[in-house]
Amino acid sequence: MQSLPTRRSFLKHAAWLPLAAAGFPLATASAAIAPIKRTGGSHLKTSLNAYSFLDLLNANLKDASQGVDLFQVCDFCAKVNFDAVDVTGYFFPGYPKAPDDSYIFKLKRHAFDLGLAISGTGVRNDFSLADFARRKQEVQLVKDWIEVAAKLGAPVIRVFSGLENVRVKVPYVRSMRW
Fold first, then answer.
1. What DSSP line would sit under 81-126, residue for residue?
2. What's the pTM value of the predicted model, to 2 decimals?
3. Contacts of 163 (CB under 8 A, 6+ apart)
């Protein structure tokens, strides 16, 4: 009957492990998977969401002499070398009404002149309304802004499901001790 190893014998044998590992490497860098060969470098591009300027954009919507507008957000993006800008819909003047084409194309041209792509836009909607007529209005709002996104050349539009408006009462739970 063999006896179980003691802690002392384990430590004595374990001391040799680094030397054994140096002589018999289990994995080497050459055994790793080679990186994907790309032509032209990384394809990762950066974009800034206009929501990052929430307070300044809202201030500008209330008073045009305050804060910043979407054109100034584009200027900032170009200055700090972003590749694109996401011009969120609710920072357009007159939102939720879709802006007129002259404003859309002026903003699109401004971004283009700065070397910026328009990466997307978004709307504030609520599809969880129980009232059919109001929910139908929300669907129409999204359809209108899909048209705006297409005119801007934005490949993406963010749409909310409406769950942020659902309030859930969470019961008090006493913490458990383990």
1. T-SEEE--GGGSTTTTSPPPHHHHHHHHHHHHHTT-EEEEEE----
2. 0.68
3. 128
